[in-house]
Amino acid sequence: MIGLEIHAHLLTASKIFCGCGTSFGAPPNTCVCPVCLGLPGALPVLNHAAVDLAIRAALALGCTVHETSVFARKHYFYPDLAKGYQISQYDCPLATGGALAATRIHRVHLEEDAGKSLHDGFPDSDRKTYVDFNRSGVPLIEIVTEPDLRSASDAAGFFSRLRSMLVWLGVNDGNMEEGSLRCDANVSVRRAGGALGTKAEIKNLNSFRFLQKALEYEIERQIGVLKGGGRVTQETRLWDAASGVTASMRSKEEAHDYRYFPEPDLPPLVVDAARLGSIRAAMPELPEARRARFIAQHALPEYDAGQLVESRALADYYEHVVRAGAPAKAASNWIMGELARVLKDRGADITAPPVSAAALAGLIALVEQGRISGSIAKHVFDTMVASGRTSDDIVQAEDLAQIDDEPRLVALIGDVLAAHPGPVAQYREGKTATFGFLVGQVMRASAGKANPTRVNELLRRALEA
Length: 465
Ligand code: ADP
Ligand code: MG
Ligand code: ZN
Known about the structure:
Blueprint: E1 2-9, H1 48-60, E2 64-65, E3 68-69, E4 71-75, E5 85-89, E6 95-100, E7 103-112, E8 116-118, E9 130-132, E10 139-145, H2 152-169, E11 181-187, E12 200-205, H3 208-227, E13 235-240, E14 245-251, E15 261-262, E16 269-270, H4 273-281, H5 287-298, H6 302-308, H7 312-323, H8 328-346, H9 357-368, H10 374-387, H11 391-397, H12 406-419, H13 421-428, H14 434-445, H15 452-464
Parallel strand pairs: 12-13
Antiparallel strand pairs: 1-10, 1-11, 2-6, 3-16, 4-5, 4-15, 6-7, 7-10, 8-9, 11-12, 13-14
This protein binds adenosine-5'-diphosphate (ADP), magnesium ion and zinc ion (ZN).
């Protein structure tokens, strides 16, 4: 049984309780003020842009957004937690009870991030830890699932799906390496149909692979403990990627008592129906709805539609190509084929397309109009990628236009027949299998530019003459 707690930075320009910026990678301690440094007497002021993003995520996950929620102080000591408490939400969270695919969402609440302790990278790192407070006060949502997941790979799959959804919504940048999206995994094992087991929590997993590996290890460890007649202890564990094991960080006895109480410096958060309505109205079309629309409106196969809604940027790109006049299925084939190949080779993604949607539509149009063949089009595409030139330009400059012109084709065919008397004679004796070979020779003689349909026609006519 696996339940996840996911922390996602909200994509606001400023922090949740002060006006400091949130950009990642600024020089240490340059985006700070008395509020996010926790100086005495400083007062928090709620950033409503963060609330709106949190609500957008909660609505997309099908949660009930509560009209009133309450901020609470969660107390613990840590050098990167300047105030000695984190402002979070506790017994009255922003939203509860949703689902993503088959996994139920228990709650979504708002909170602030802590600063960051820097344990290495300094000449005296063996003796000192440095603290960077730029991250202190960056807005987060915590999304807590019910323990509905049943395997390590399902958990990784869910996390990946949630990431795509948050990025799609424009709520989070999905950047796990920079810590914008982090996951804690709770896992217990039990005999089929037996009572729920005692869980362990694995903290701060920042990749799908680590989540999966840590859970695989932890499930085996707990089964081993139980089979050996022992009991699993409730504890927090850390994943050590280098050695591939989880190790105990603190047990339940040492677990924190956070002494939650309502934050006295902030009023309860009230979200009225009008605000909820306007956030709902401004929501982008969600991946599932868009997938269904692609099938209905563009008559795409399910497979194509599923691939094209992988990200909102990809779905947008696809629709640009179609709006620029490309047939729906041809556009899908180009994007999933040639374009995906180039992106993969470059380790890039569609937010920086190697060829604009309009330019790709232009290329597809040349194929549709019969001006170039499918295989020439692939060459033109590669040239577009490499040079940034338009397809028209390349076709003209390299003289790639398809040859339809009958006298030219007849002349080419005449040359090929003269050069291959053997296969010609065989064909005429009834060994018609040589026909394909002769077509190939004509195509080759035309550097791939001859119209294959016309070549077939005219070659047959010539052979049977
Ligand atoms: P805690 O109070 O220890 O934080 P919660 O009840 O808030 O525990 O649950 C935290 C997370 O742990 C949730 O994602 C929940 O689904 C999951 N969880 C709770 N109990 C179990 C269990 N027995 N096995 C696996 N996961 C569990
Ligand atoms: Mg918890
Ligand atoms: Zn600040």
